[in-house]
Protein 1
Amino acid sequence: MSEIKLAVEDLCVAFRNAGKSTQAVRNVSFDLGREKLAIVGESGSGKSTVGRSLLRLHPPMAQVTAKTLRFADIDLLAASEKQIQAIRGRRMSMIMQDPKYSLNPVVKVGEQIAEAYLAHHKVPHRDARERTLEMLAKVHIRDPQRVYELYPHEVSGGMGQRIMIAMMVITDPQVIIADEPTSALDVSVRRQVLNVLEELVSERDLGLIFISHDLNLVRHFCDRVLVMYAGRVVESIAAADLDRATHPYTRGLLAALPSLEHRRDTLPVLQRDPQWLTA
Amino acid sequence: MSMIEIKGLNLSFGTGAALNAVLHDVDLHVAEGEAFGLVGESGSGKTTVLRCLAGQYQHWSGWLQVAGQAVTRRLPLSHFRTVQMVFQDPYASLHPRHTIDAALQEPLRIHGIDGRAQKVSEMLRKVGLNDSFRFRYPHQLSGGQRQRVAIARALILRPRVLLLDEPTSALDVSVQAEILNLLAELRRQEGLTYLMVTHDLAVVAHLCDRLAVMQQGRVVETLASQQLSGDGAHHAYTRLLVQASRDMSEAVAS
């Protein structure tokens, strides 16, 4: 692995609500280099919460603690709000799940991408537009001039997600956090969006954190996989070795997938072991 | 005997220049007790076919028949005792301010059926829940539990046909396995006929006997599920779908 872009050690996140504290993430540690790192787990396992803590996107009731939470040479826990703003969206950005909900419905998509650029660069609007058109072409949108003028409801899901990617990459970040970027898309379109991401990652030496619940997709697309259960990382394994996963939870998840090739009468159902909560 | 027969189903929205034809001469036959899958990308019209059968659209043209009864524009109450539907998102398909008990009793009340309390508790057991769930609200249930309630609500009138619209795509894989097992089990017990819409070929291969592939409002191919695993798909679009879903799972197998 090359230089370490992101170092996380013993990250814990708790949410305080009505005097009750809920521990959502417990002692998560990992380093991110120039690679595609997947975080998988069921809903509620804390995978998105990890992604959000990196960008300080949590509401005030969240308590984020860690031994280390470092991005390049900046301590993310000690950084001021101003420092974080200089990082968020500029050097580290996040792609959300559903373009339908993350794009502003009353602003042209091109303007929204340009806005992301203008937020971090003092340049004339015309230059931002130029950059945007280049970026749209980069994410394989055929007719950037036309698409620039469209509103979000006029673009398909796959195109919407490529627009989101363009918006996140236009500031040339070092780390991208993609939170279920393809779950809202069809199988055929999913491929296209993943190809675009793949291209950008290898071309720009990005570190990618890919949050997903889809094991099959992840082992195909990523280099390394963190499997989360109830706020903990239960297994960290190279994507290629996923078949040789040792933790019963990972194995259970893999076995529960229906398969085209092997039909079974009943799918094995995951048996949860209370020990996983502490082990 | 075929349980569901669809012949030359056409449907369009809008008029004049804005006319948008969404279904073109769809033909389907589903035998009694069969599980049949409808596959295709979003916008291909697969959910629309279900909605026509469920009576949610009235302006279609063609011939629809369920359990020997022609489906008419104005549907009699008895139609809904034969055909019921389960929706994709269990977070959106249950009324947030109605208890589970109220949600399950409503169809019985509409159809003037007595012994409701007992039927509700029997049905809950059948879908793997119990009486302790009766007076809870949907927000107190997990996604998988909600989908069980939605299935219970569909089955409480003892229909013969279940229309399933992506019943597991909003769920985690571990929970998806539970719901797929439940659906398979209920079909065996009750002799139900399923018509299931999904975009996940592996789910179809698991649950269904046969499937139809739709593209832009047309059925482009009908085949048996076994043909998916071999080299049985002929239409270019079906092959593309098979390839796409194989890519996802094969990287490891190889």
Protein 2
Amino acid sequence: MKKWSMAFALMLGIFLLVGCGQKKYTPQAINEDVDVCVICNMQVKDDAFATQIVTKDGKNLKFDDIGCMNEWKQKNGVDHIGMDYVRDYNDKEWIQFSKATYVYDSSFRTPMAYGIISFKVKKSAEDFVHEQGTGQILSADELSNHTWQQSKDMMDMHMEEGMDGDMHEDMNMDHNGTN
Amino acid sequence: MADMLQVASREIKMGFRNPWAYSFLILFSVFSLSLLLVNSQNEVSGYSGVTGSMLSLILYVLPLMTLFLGSFSLTAEKEEGSWQLLSTYPLGTMSFLIGKYAGLSVVLLTIVSFGYGLMGLITIIIGKTFAATTFLLFLAFSIGLVLLFLSIALFVGSLSKNRWQALTISVMIWFFAVIGWSSILIAVLGLLPYLWIKPVLVFFTFLNPAELVRLFVVIKLGGGSVLGPEYYKWVNWIHQPSGSLVFIGLCLVWIGLSLTIVYWIWERGRSRG
Amino acid sequence: MRSKHRMNVLIFVVLIHFILVSLLFTVVAFSATEEEVSSKQIFDLQQIVDEAQPGDTLVLAEGNYLGPVVINKVLHIQGSNQVLLTNDSPEAAIMIQAEGVVVEGFNIRQNYVNESAAIVVTADEVGLKDLNIQTKGYGILLRDADRGTVLHNSISWLRTKNIKTGEKGNGIDLYNSHNNTIEQNKIQNMRDGIYLENSRQLKILNNQLMGSRYGIHCMYIDGSEIIGNLGEYNITGAMIMGVRDVLVSNNSFLKQSKNVNAQGILLYSVQNSVIEQNIVEGNRVGIYIESSQENQIRENSILRNFIGIQFVHAESNKIHDNDFVSNVIEAEATDSDANEIEQNYWDSAQGLDLNKDGISEIPYAINPFYQELISKTPAFQLFFQSTGMTFLSSMYTNNQESWTKDSSPLMKMSIDSISKPPPSSTEKGNISETTFMLLITSTLLITSVAIIFYSGVSKS
């Protein structure tokens, strides 16, 4: 019996060591086979729109759109959050939510139509706005005053301007990132 | 080797002269027939309500039956003094134990296959659909349960002095492994930090043959996705054909280890007694 | 015994032969048609289109055509199955930019790997019929295209199958396109079979959707109808999100059980919609309802799923006259107490009908213990339906008044769900299986009886 309790204590010790080793809130890679958005249940694509919360007890919660992450925060509060991450639009690197720069426009297509895109540096956000010819640059703080309007009711507007020739090409391109 | 075979054939003969074996045979047959009647309108294939409840019922009955028959057989040797007699002969403890194990396996598996044969035959006669793969999987599930719990039964039998003690310990182990398992684990693991829960749970699952075999069958029935994203890699892996081989290997290791412990207990008893 | 066995073997061998021969035949036939097509002359479809007058009907001669093609005037293009349009450019094989264009009856192969589509429609009242599309990107895109018809096409994935679903394109993809009808299409192995976004008044009828990520994926489509579709082996059959006033009826969603997040029908943020007379069978979760209100879910057959129906934050819905049969767990519910659930048939419910009106006087309550447990600690999903878990759940009776419950469960099925076989695409013979079973079971029985007699009864 003594041997058994020894072995058991050893096992526990190993678990302890393993457990204590990781105290940092590191973001997990997106696995498209199993990851679904905690809020809307859609598959989380391994793209720039994915966001992630690591809770204080080490649970990784993944979202397909920053809007869904916002909804989670509304529902559950921010007390349990160890760290929250968004991704850079260009290289998909995980960046802290508070350090990122955001660009919003209702015409940007994101998985849940919140129309917000995140960037690591402000410069690339500005470039993006310049390139698209539209978009509002927001910091993480400014985002807290954002209305979080989903652009599902904007479709009438689209209809008027969408008929000219090369518009579908843009749409097609924007579509790359969606769902 | 010859010793082993002799012990085994003696065990089989004793087993089938034992009224307990026949009462369990009747119990198991009646029970498997009632399984059929409970869900008489549904097709039996894949992981569904029918197969799910069949799994649970088998989990209640088979381990208990195995624990009783197995442990009683060993205590009987002590109570009736035949072990004292046998140990004066140049009979190795290992051959004795393996012979016992083999003999008892034959007795128990005969009971199980009688029950399944009867159930299957009646299924065909009343024209019900019972997918052959599902049937075979259930048979394998029962065999796995019997073989794993039999090694525990020998362990119980070698620790107990008499039938009553064996009975008490058997019921305790049965309750712990089959009924109390998740309650106890949820209570204990709830005290651990979140990140430890999964690895500790997996570790303990390997210790409980009832859970181990149940999970294997659920996955093989195609129900693995219900275990959620935490285990999907395991599920995919076991679902492959090679998963079965690994599982059989795992069972053999399990049986080997517990028989070694039983051997160690008997050897100690032999050198002292 | 032996002669029976020999008979079986004989039947088996004959069967195998038959299958092999027929297989060989189809392969030969298939490759023959392929060859025939490829040996023909290659035409420039754009040139033919440019030369045509608006309103013309073009009947394409047999042979190969090259894309991409832009159609910017009213034309009716008709092909046959001896016509193949291939496109290797990043443009769509066919771009339709004029109202009233009809394209029908030929093969299209979109070879460009990446975000490209076989057909892009940006005009109203376009008809696409009887096309056989193979694509390495998207199938058919409709952008700002209203009142169109997509009828009887087949769309399938051309690249390797092992690619992640996220890297594929959608079969039929609508954005901001209203009043379209999508009917009788067969879509296989794409990302989403039919993807619908920001569009209204759509009719999605009698399509077959296999092996894709989501069979039908709706985002913000109000006032649409989804009727008579069949979905099998997708991750989720119908993913219905952010909609109002949608009718989902007479669909069959079967065998969505492989993925850890699979469902038959998922409703998220759905209002005022009707889900009726669907068959959901053999899925991981039959019907999943989250954050949805004021919906009617009625007369569905929910059979043999791992979890029959699952509610999460769903309120004020009416769920009645559904049949729940042989699900591993009938129902799970959290934070969903204000639904009207009544007169469903639950085969595991212990009903008691005292006044003989066919309705049980004992309500059927859904125990939330397991779902609450695993939402806190997903690792405990390992205990799904373990014997100990059933025991533990039955001990849990906290707050029983607030559990989701069926106030008046039916004693008998409302629809005869069992006798109505689901319209599965795969069929299998039962005869050989029965003989096989007979063989196994009789062997088992005979061996066991022999052992008992030999060693127990006979005093040898």
